[in-house]
User: Fold this.
Amino acid sequence: MTKNYLIDNKVVFYPNEHRLVPVGNHSGVETSLNLPVSRCLLLLIEHQNSIVSKDDFFDKAWMQRGTYVTANTFYQNISLLRKGLKSAGLSEEIIKTVPKKGLMLSGEVKVELYVPSFQATTASQSEKPASTPLITPGLQKEEKGITRKLNLSYRYKIGMFVISIIFLSLLMSYPFFVKQQEKYLDSYKLDSEMNGCQVYTPKKDKNLIRYVEFLQKNNITCLGSRMNTLFITMDKSAEYTSIIRCDSAAISNDTQCDSEFYFRGQNEK
Assistant:
């Protein structure tokens, strides 16, 4: 049976459908999550009283499914998760950052299994004895034998198909993973140093002026902070801007980073 979760008595999380749905009269709107974001939230819920490390997120949300991503992608997905929770009517602060260790759900958050009332009624009705079909013993035994053979054959074929897909995905993704790990920073260039920040922007974006204007307009500074390396991405329409703040330009498992999203000038970390 699929497990769905009620968060703070305000929002229901449907992992299989990747949705956050407000309940009752609470503010918020139904919000769809992308697959990695949904997997990250499920991982936090399943380890509610524990810290989930960055390596665990990489493994459960991506690597076990044959996908390898950079730290930049990870932090962007965590930012999208916080934004999705806020859109559905929850506080972004229910996800706590534990420095140099990982993320966890706030101890004040209440999470419980969600069972709609109509499901409970259906479950009680299903406990009633079913009527016995009028089948002779010999015929019933023969039909069970045929059904069992068909089920085993079907499961075997499905299992082999899934294994083949996973193997091919791993085979095709491995060169890409190696290339990404070795040449991650090749996609960014150091454009300027401003307010104590080392500002990196995508190489393909030649319009440096808009980045400088954005930093000045939003009064972004790194003075007095060890998180003084900024990787900035801005879409063509300037509808949103993402900033990954790190303590080093050399991304590794020991690098400490935070992510920020700006929508039409409004900061949504």
